[in-house]
C-alpha cells in the first residue's frame, strides 16, 4: 500500500516580505501569502488530492495557511493536530535581524553557515530579547528545555519523534496526510525522506505555498525522490528566490 503525504510551506509571511530572520517569532501572512495559501488548496483540489488529516506547527503563519488551503480545497472539516515539533527552526540571535544587513555585516560564508549548514546554530537568543519566545504560554510544557537557537540537525532531532509517532501513524492508517509547516522544518523532513546528505541539504530550498506531494511505499520511502510540486514552474522560480534571500 502506498501512502500520500502533502507538504505545504506557509505562504509569504510579513517577515518574509521584509526579509527578516523569523524562526519562532509569530508573524502573520501578507495578502500575497494568503493568496498563495488559497491557491495551494486549489492546486490540491484540481489534482484530486483530498487531505484527511492535518498536522501543523504552533505558529500562526502555518495555521492560517492550512486553514486557507483547506477551505479552498473544500476540506476545512478534517481533524487537526498541532505540535511545536513542526515549528520553524529557532533562529537564535538572528531572529528579527535583516537578512541583507546580516550578510553585509558578517560576509557570505558566515551568513550561509548560519542559514544552511547542517550543524552550526546561530548564537543563542537572550531570554530578555523582544524576539524571545521563552515566556510564550504555548511552549510552557517545554520548560527550560525550550530552544534558544537551533541548527537544522536540532530541528531534525526534535521533529523525527513527531514524524515517527504521529504522522506515520496516520499514513499507516491509510489517511492522506497534509503537513503545513516551515522552510526549515520541511527541509528537515525532506532530508529524512529522501536520504539527503548533511552537505547536500544546504542546497535544498522550499518555496512558500506550493504543495509538494510524496507518494511513499510500504517502508515510507519516496516512490519519486524529491516528491512532486503541483506547480513545478512556479516552484522552480520561488526556490531560486528563497536561495537568494539577503542578496539584492
Ligand atoms: O527566517 C526564517 O525563519 C527562515 C524561513 O523564512 O529563513 P531562511 O530561509 O533564511 O532559513
Automatic annotation (TrEMBL):
What are the alphabetically sorted keywords of the record?
Gluconeogenesis, Glycolysis, Isomerase
The signal peptide here is none
- Provide the binding site for substrate: 9-16, 22-23, 61, 88-91, 99, 115-116, 183-184
E.C. designation(s):
5.4.2.11
A GO molecular-function descriptor:
phosphoglycerate mutase activity
Q: Which reaction does it catalyse?
A: (2R)-2-phosphoglycerate = (2R)-3-phosphoglycerate
**Which InterPro entries does UniProt cross-reference here?**
His_Pase_superF_clade-1, His_PPase_superfam, PG/BPGM_mutase_AS, Phosphogly_mut1
Database matches in HAMAP family: PGAM_GpmA (MF_01039)
PANTHER family given in the database record: PHOSPHOGLYCERATE MUTASE
Q: What is this protein called?
A: 2,3-bisphosphoglycerate-dependent phosphoglycerate mutase
Source organism (scientific name): Glutamicibacter mishrai
- Phylogenetic lineage: Bacteria, Bacillati, Actinomycetota, Actinomycetes, Micrococcales
